[in-house]
Amino acid sequence: MKLRCVAIDDEPLALVLIRDYVSKFPELELVQTFDDGVSGAEFLRNAQIDLLFIDINMPDITGLDLVKSLKEKPMIIFTTAYKKFAFEGFELDALDYLLKPIDFNRFSKAISKAFEYYSYKTNPENFVEENLFVYSEYRLVKIPVADIEYIESLDDYIKIHFTNAKPILTLMTLKKVLDKLPGDKFKRIHRSYIVALSKIKSVLNRKIQLASMKELPVSDSYAAVIDEWKKK
Description:
Order of helices and strands: EHEHEHEHEHEEEEEHEEEEEH
CATH class of the largest domain: Alpha Beta
Number of strands: 15
Shape: elongated
Helix content: 25-40%
Largest sheet: 5 strands, parallel
Number of helices: 7
Radius of gyration: 21 Å
Oligomer: single chain
């Protein structure tokens, strides 16, 4: 498997560096580079690309506006000297955000994330039992499914709770995250909660107690989950 890449940056030295870094990964194919955003945008509208390295602060069109204009978006890795753009970048579901001057080790981590996320997108059935990918705090986070204890709805956000780690907040609905989880291991018990069946310790009076000793209510419409847990 090779990922087809394009790099867009108005700084020639930045393009030289990206070309050199990409050459160290046999699994990457750098199809084209552009030193202006307009030409790069035109090329992307007529090409099948897997991964885009793009600078944010360019004179003709910003990298943010260019990405917004694309109907079919590849995986995006923003490259910029300005950390202040991170929030806007991740609002566009960017895979990663590399601050210039780009360190090779940091670049390598971004590429590893790209390969893993590409595999997740193209073969989701192979990953749903093991990992969940969500955006949190301006970065794409891989969450081992086995570590999740329960998930809580907070309006447009959900909070993913773990037995022995800090929770993670991400912009997603309970319905959407439930679709991404193995259905035989995670069940909705309330309009505000999803639980991992394996983390249920006990049930009493329509309340479940989890491994962390946290207690959650079970609503009438989801009472059948208790019977299902008893059979496990």
